[in-house]
Design brief:
- There is one protein chain.
- The two termini are 30 Å apart.
- The chain contains 13 helices and no strands.
- The protein has one domain.
- Helices cover 75% and strands 0% of the residues.
- By secondary structure, it is mostly helical.
- Helix 1 packs parallel to helix 12 and helix 8 runs parallel beside helix 10.
Length: 285
């Protein structure tokens, strides 16, 4: 039964990590009804974060060519002479923006992670965050639609090259909200921030995927170090199964989301968040 539960958590993580509906919030809510019986409380605290590594590996695989900065193309190496001749400058520039966007959550998260967890990791706070950011999605999309209707909306930034370091830092502060409030959704908060500063929906979603790589690898490393390597055999099996399932599910969900946002807006996720938040308040309020 514990392995079956791990599979269910893996499916939930794989779906909710990339859709802007809060993976951590869903994991905490599912755990209210489907608790592991053969794990320690410290393992569960670590599990909620480290399970996301499986989903992150899906991004690495799907977008490897876009994020791997080393090139073996002789033509490009000849043009880029010098000690950094085998580095793709555009991809290195992208990574610079990604790292800048990680700064707010990295600093604040390191300093106050335990405080935020004690204060906000509960069903009521999750419900409030779900509702607030659900409303935010609807407001932002309606605002953009109104601007387009009146031809006052500026041209959207459709490529990574158009994202400035200032944009990246602003997106990073929106990601910080997810580090503070579970239920906010890391992808949800960064997408809202991206839309507000003029990124197109596909560009916002893709930059969010990239931003997840160092963010979640760093968060997972901190949790594993804090937990130590004192896994029981069952705990290790649960973690590995959940990560593998989240990896497989994420492969499909990422492709779905990228195809979806090319033709649709994010309002449906806003409505879903509001409905789910109300249900959670009704149950736990």
């Amino acid at each position: 039964m514990e392995i079956i539960k791990a599979i269910i958590f893996g499916i939930v993580e794989g779906i909710t990590e990339w859709l802007p509906i809060s993976s951590t919030g869903h994991l905490i809510l599912v755990e209210q009804f489907l608790k592991f019986e053969q794990v320690s409380p410290d393992f569960w605290e670590m599990f909620q974060v480290v399970i996301q590594l499986g989903a992150i590996l899906a991004v690495v695989l799907l977008y490897f060519k876009k994020i791997w900065p080393f090139t073996t193309k002789k033509e490009k190496a000849i043009k880029q002479k010098g000690i950094l001749s085998f580095l793709d400058k555009d991809i290195m520039n992208l990574w610079g923006k990604i790292l800048v966007a990680c700064i707010p959550a990295a600093i604040i998260g390191l300093l106050f992670d335990d405080v935020f967890e004690a204060l906000f990791y509960n069903p009521v706070c999750i419900a409030i965050a779900l509702i607030v950011f659900g409303v935010a999605f609807i407001i932002v999309e309606n605002r953009n639609k109104m601007k387009s209707k009146h031809s006052i909306k500026p041209k959207e930034k459709e490529t990574k090259e158009e994202i400035t370091y200032k944009d990246a830092l602003i997106i990073g502060f929106f990601q910080l909200l997810a580090a503070i409030f579970p239920g906010t959704s890391r992808s949800g908060s960064t997408i809202i921030g991206s839309l507000l500063i003029g990124l197109s929906r596909p560009n916002a979603a893709e930059f969010t995927f990239y931003l997840a790589i160092p963010t979640m690898f760093g968060a997972s490393l901190l949790k594993v170090v804090k937990f130590g390597l004192a896994f029981t055999g069952m705990e290790l099996a649960i973690l590995l199964v959940a990560m593998f399932v989240s990896f497989i599910v994420s492969m499909f969900v990422i492709k779905f989301l990228m195809n979806y946002v090319k033709k649709h807006n994010f309002k449906v996720f806003g409505y879903y968040r509001i409905i789910l938040g109300i249900i959670v308040l009704f149950i736990h309020g």
